[in-house]
Amino acid sequence: MASGIQSHGVIEGVGRVDRTRAAQLNLVVVAVWLWSMVPPVVQRLTGPTGRASVTQEVPYTAAAAMSATVMGGLLVLTLVLVIVSAWRSLPHHPVGPLLLLLLPWIYLVLRSMAEGGGVDIRKIAYPLIVVTIWVLRPRLRDLVALGWVVVVTAALAIAFGVLIPEAGIFRKPSGEVIVTAKSDLPWGLLTGMFSHPNSLGQYLVIGLPFVTLIRRGLTRFLGVVVVVLAIVWTSSRTSEIAVVAGALVTLVCMAWSPQRRRYAVGMGLTALAGVVVVVPLVTTAYEAFTNRGYIWAVSRQFADAEPAFGLGPGWYGAIGSSAGNLGPTVFHGHNQFIHTLTTGGLVGVLVIAAYSLVAAWKAAARTRTTFLGAAFVAVLFATCLFEVSYTFVDNTVLMPVVAIPLAALLVSRREDDGEWDETPPAPTAYEPFPDLPDLDLPPMDLRTITQPIRVVGAGESPATWEGDLPDPRSRPAFPGGSRLRTRRSAAPQRHR
After folding, report:
1. C-alpha to C-alpha distance for 117 and 136, rounded to whole angstroms
2. What is the pTM assigned to this prediction?
3. Would you place residue 465 in the very low, low, confident or very high pLDDT band (cuts 50, 70, 90)?
């Protein structure tokens, strides 16, 4: 009985720990989202809006700057408290995935310090987030809160576009609405609290797979509709391509058997990463992909000056304020490979390539139990074709939808998702009973049993006896590992 009570206590303790970890994970997601989203919202409500440029940055208002400071302090405090509180019950976690997550950040920070760059909240947020996720070690399907914040972000952006169009629709710094031929809807391009419609679409499409984690069916459907509507309103071609990529991967997972889809998805994601590398290298026309061909060609020319270690994470900002700028609105390389090659060199490319491929094959391995990781990596890689989606020391607005799920994917193990590396062995003839609680029953004298007992074996005739039990050594062997089945007569006599 004592052992049963102890087992029940252990189960309750495990459940309590799981609930605590879930609450801590939700707190982390919300804190990271508030840090990345509150200052832009305050800026849209209190200050000038319009398209930012490298040479003419829209200044933060006092309220927006204050909110950035407060949210940054709140983020650091939250992450530190979660790490300290969860560390007390920290089980054995492999440090390999943590080192892989931190390696790109370490390299880029060292590269930035070599150029004389300082340290601020944007450069310390990523390692804090990664260590927190490593300590909590959530499964991807535990990131329900991330799905909710993506829906809230889409709803806020739509509200800006409908209620405050002067702040939520794409405009020049002068306030004039920017009209382009690519608009899918006649109401302009939705930016919401972001500076560019492509940035909003990129954020929403990367987070879209996690909206499917919302548990209520109708709420989940409405959430997906809201997010997709916001993506369509942005008219971001990159985001629309990413939606197609995620849908294709999901269809492959649904159509193929678990063993086949594992390798098919892994090869497909690897091929998609290869497309991100090859397309800018083979593009020669400057006007291709909305003038991205020009950005790629000029970036490669500059990267040739420092092929090994690149020009530093702040190079695009520096070149934008010089005579050799790529254009007034070019903040990055508009391709993850080109951006990494230019700012981090070949060493940076190798580091992030290892980081990306491990994530891709881990997501493919999880397709036996969940399609979420594969869909997430597919949309992430698709956005990397024409935008820069990874966030280590900059691009912090994407940290909720990029840093958190990537960290969760890399630190999780198969058993966390209910899947093991090896198939459990088939049941054998001998299966010991599990430990049962001691019921303190008196021992039963088997020699007092006088009713006939029939023993039926595989292919044997029923045998009966009365009185003393037979010698176990004289029992016939049962081929095929079949079990001994003992049946009493229709009205057996019970003894206590």
Report:
1. 31
2. 0.80
3. very low
